[in-house]
Amino acid sequence: RGPTAAAPPPPPPPRPTEAGPTTLVLFYAYRPTKASDRETTKAVAACHAAMQKHGVTGRLRVAREGYNATLTSTYEGSRAFCEDLSRIDAETFDGSVDFKFVDHLPQSHLMKGAKCWKVEEIVTYGITEKDAPLHKGANHLSPSEFHEALEDPSAVVIDVRNANETLIGRFAPPGGAEYIDPQMRRSTEFPEWVRRNKAKLEGKKVLMYCTGGVRCERASAFLAREGIRPHGQLEGGIHRYLEQYPDEGGHWVGKNYVFDRRFAHGAAKHDVVSRCGICSIPWDRYQAGAKCPSCSMEVLVCRTCQRAKKASPKCHLCT
After folding, report:
1. Helix then strand then coil, % of the chain, to nearest 5
2. Crossing angle of helices 214-225/190-201, nearest 10°?
3. CB 172 within 8 A of CB 179
4. Looking at CB atoms within 10 Å, which of 62, 105, 210, 271 has the fewest?
5. Catalytic residue (choose from 47, 82, 116, 210)
6. Closest CA to 139 of 207, 52, 71
7. CB-based burial of residue 261 (10 Å sphere; 0-12 exposed, 13-18 middle, 19+ buried)?
8. Strand ranges across the sheet with 264-266
9. Active-site residue 318, yes or no?
């Protein structure tokens, strides 16, 4: 018997004209070594020029430690921009960065403006590299590995997102890991929460997750620095998990809050797990622009209450 013929190459991805024309791309990348201030300023200028060249809109944070982006463009423009990053910073964008593309979105999902700016941290924790060196962070678990780890009743799973995000969706493995919500209004509250709650984490199999993975990087390293060695963090975050469990959602319930014009997304079959803060009907959309009068965190207000122009309620942390 002769050698088996090589399989034909896979067909190219469908073009965006088959649905909506907008592509969303999400990514983060930590540099192998910190850049100088001058190198970071040059990277900001080069990235901004590439955004203009390829018609890219959205937000790109650039720090000495790395990059964090939520961007939109066309199918071709988004990919061409990501290819350009390897020329702007070849050491960081060496083929290992996880670019999350979401194609075929409607024109209305195109983000307004192109903002690329220099920041101190790609996620604002107020934690230095010395306080939380990234090499001490948790192992990355694939969605299927994380799914299996969630089924361990001796484990705990920390949701590293803010309280307005956790309200509309979370992991809830039946009979599995204990869910822990730090109930933060902002990421800078995480270090103090860890210090106050170390006792409940000691000796436990600690799992962590966030929207796309970036918040877990520094957070898991900080936990390790405080003497709590996490078992693992969800690689690619909820975004990649829902790609693997798109129909029933696996152990995920509700919706995943996102920082683009989708606002939130979930599995094909999902329940609404949150309620309007005024009338208590099931509701999971933060599109009324309502803020807690006490702390200014986003609150859920249904369309009926919004149209009735009812006063914004206090958030669940302030009531």
Report:
1. 30, 20, 50
2. 60
3. yes
4. 271
5. 210
6. 207
7. middle
8. 169-171, 252-257, 264-266
9. no
Cα–Cα nearest to 161, from 176, 148, 180, 142: 180
Whether the Cβ atoms of residue 197 and residue 204 lie closer than 8 Å to each other: no
Question: CA 45 to CA 157: how far, in whole Å?
Answer: 39
CB 31 within 8 A of CB 64: yes
Write down the residue that tokens 């941290």 correspond to: 121
Which residues does 181 contact at the CB level (< 8 Å), separation at least 6? 159, 163, 166, 170
User: Residue 92 CA to chain centroid, in angstroms?
Assistant: 20
Residues 6+ apart with CB under 8 A from 42: none
Joined tokens for residue 170: 């979370």
Could you tell me the mean pLDDT of each successive run of 10 residues in the chain, 319 residues long? Answer: 47 56 97 96 98 98 98 98 98 97 96 97 92 94 98 98 98 97 97 95 96 97 95 98 97 97 94 97 93 97 95 96
Judge whether 50 and 56 are in contact, CB under 8 Å. Answer: yes
Where is 200: in which H helix or E strand?
Answer: helix 190-201
pLDDT at 4: 43
Euclidean distance between CA atoms 237 and 68, whole angstroms:
14
Q: How far apart are CA 37 and CA 132, in angstroms?
A: 21
